[in-house]
């Protein structure tokens, strides 16, 4: 039920069209009106109408570069009744305009905007009219605008050609070392008309705080007024309610609700995720004239950074419990983010949860994700580390950029700070490190580079708007500003030398306190690759493959990183598998090492979870949503209980990790075997791990020393959990060609595939995507001794037989 004073909100998503108005427009597009879907961007409309090819395929990216060099105009008409116009205030609200635009209504200019990351609220009370209203949003070329602004601000160091630091737009829309150049324009988030007579809710900030078994919810609301009507702010949570008056003339109010008993919210793997709806109503007399809802969870959270004997930790603590962070970095899940809806967030983040991830870092070169992203993270127990949107560049501190950054920061902190999942706000990605180490000072020649934002502006905004949310100035960072920002003994580090210059076993030379980035490249799933690249013949360096490899010397680095472990295959299918397997092995080695050094090392965030298009990259899930072998590396290394074998001085040690609430006790059996499965040496020990602890067991030299390194392995078994160690690299070993039996039987909504090893089978994996676009398998990278069997559950296929399953079975053996 509504009254005349109730706020009315009307989406304006119908009847839009767009046209090119200036730029290098091909004749087939011209200046004709094209039907436009809002929310959306120009590329998607042109593709929908058949005017351009899919930019994700082959070299279409280069063919479509003209789109980012063109000015585009969107327009629509909408009707408003005479009764709806009079006596009310009217505002147009754009939740996202990408990026530099002039907005006109009925021929009157009502706004000029220049920030993709802001909501723009425009008072149109004197411009809206009864009858037909004509709305136009005219976008400037983002590439030309960024270029022009770079001349205004002066040159700044950055890794890519387009001066993305000069425009408040997703940096990776201009391309990245995993990303396509799109340089989008469009109304990329919802637009609506809001009409109200007396007052409406503005910013609503909600903080939920536990106190023992009880809880406290504090709601601070800002009210926009059209008159001096006395108002009330009413807050309801879990059956408890409070109301406060807002006298005439006041525009702010705070209401507190005390709850007698609340359930704690926990990160994934540590407990449940109970959530509570906070209903906020603005009342005038007996009428509710506006309302909103926020969903909260009750937990305490901090990052421990008190110096200790080893340096400075960066230890996450939730509800008083130290949490080992099992993290992944997140980039926009589509180069056209308007295509990412709640269902897609739930699917992708659900995959992260299935890999035992408990934290997702939203990287600073993308976008502030939609409310759906943070809602799903709340539900799944996935903590979120949110970068402010600065990445790998020196940023001007001059106007108008400074004010735009302040406004976007306030809006987005207000929008997301109530989420139980929000664990950290971070000033930037690699900019402090870049200024310290990458020769920026000389290039800047005295110009500003963004330090004001990271050290002053952003922490002040967080302190004002969300003091309950921890803030750090950048990633990597040292809590002691006098130290190098990438000092592994202090705070968080990024480890990229392994990928760029060294081999992955050298991860074991580092014992960082916390790792916020590291990773290894591999190609996308075979079906993704062959859908996007139509090269004939398809080779690692064929033209389309190079288009879909954005990293500098990426293929060379992949080959250099493989050759110490396996020879680089000639045949394309085997090359593809070898690079995927090496990616998984590299990250496994790092994660096992970092976890073996917990709690000194308090967590690791892998670069990266996802892709935004079909590309060779560091992702565990490719641009079509297929899980690469790296996904199973995460799943295995992040499992609640693990057994890993690591170098320990001149010998080896077994490290047992118990990241559960239950003790882990029992016998540990350590054996050295030959590749035929024969027992060469054995030792038994007892292990007793309290909850959330690890234990290191040195392995006796009689077992840990190989007689024939090329033909032996070490196996540690503890309570149905296993770790293996090979004494020699595969290429230097006597690993034989794969021999296995495959059997299939229906099981539930899928099929159980039983793989029985007839010889030692290393890293057995089913690459199921060629079976069907929807195919999934529940595990991978399983090493089997002769005679052992493993069951893989395959879902998303209608039929499956042993021959088909055998055709997608891969192992390290086949690369010998």
Q: How would you characterize this protein structure?
A:
This protein has a 6-stranded antiparallel sheet with strand order 3-2-4-9-6-7. Strands 25-24-23-22-21-28 form a 6-stranded parallel sheet, with helices on one face. Strands 1-10-5-8 form a 4-stranded antiparallel sheet, with no helix packed on it. The chain is built from 18 helices and 42 strands. A hairpin with a 2-residue loop joins strand 29 and strand 30. With about 800 residues, the chain is an alpha+beta fold.
Can you lay out the helices and strands and say which pair or pack?
Elements lengths: L7 E4 L5 E6 L11 E2 L6 H7 L11 H4 L7 E10 L1 H4 L3 E6 L5 E6 L2 E7 L5 E4 L7 E9 L2 H12 L37 E6 L2 E13 L2 E12 L5 E7 L2 E7 L5 E8 L16 E9 L2 E10 L4 E4 L10 E4 L2 E3 L1 E6 L11 H13 L4 E4 L8 H10 L2 E5 L13 H16 L5 E5 L4 H7 L2 H5 L6 H15 L5 E2 L20 E3 L1 H4 L14 E4 L7 H7 L10 H5 L6 H9 L9 H25 L6 E4 L22 H9 L3 E8 L2 E8 L5 E11 L4 E11 L3 E6 L2 H4 L7 E7 L2 E6 L13 E8 L2 E8 L3 E6 L9 E2 L4 E3 L4 E7 L6 H6 L1 E2 L6
Parallel strand pairs: 21-22, 21-28, 22-23, 23-24, 24-25, 26-27
Antiparallel strand pairs: 1-10, 2-3, 2-4, 4-9, 5-8, 5-10, 6-7, 6-9, 11-12, 12-15, 13-14, 13-16, 16-17, 18-19, 19-20, 29-30, 30-33, 31-32, 31-34, 34-35, 36-37, 37-41, 38-40, 38-42, 39-41
Helix pairs in contact: 5-6, 7-10, 14-15, 15-16
